[in-house]
Amino acid sequence: MKQIALFTTTLVCLGLSIGASGQTKCAEAAQQLGATDGFVLNNQALVLRMNNHAGKLKAQDVALSNDVVLANGTRIDHKKAVVEYADGRQVPLQNGDFVNMSGDIKVASSGQLITAPQPGAGATEPAPPSPATPEPAAAAFSYQPAEPVNGKLRGVVELGASGFNSFVVRLDAQRRWKLEKADFGNSLVLENLATEDDVRRGLKAYIGQMLDYGVGPRDIHFVVSSGAAKADNTQKIVKSLQALSYQVNVVTPQQEGALALRAVLPPAYADKAFVVDMGSANTKISWLQPDGSLGTLETHGSKYFQQPLPDSVVAADVRRLVAQVPAERRTACFILGGVPYELAKTVRQGSERYVVLGKPASYAQLPGAKTQAGLNIYRAITDGTGCPQFVFDSSVNFTIGYLLALPQ
Question: I need a surface site. Which of 34, 102, 125, 249 has the fewest CB within 10 A?
Answer without folding.
Answer: 125
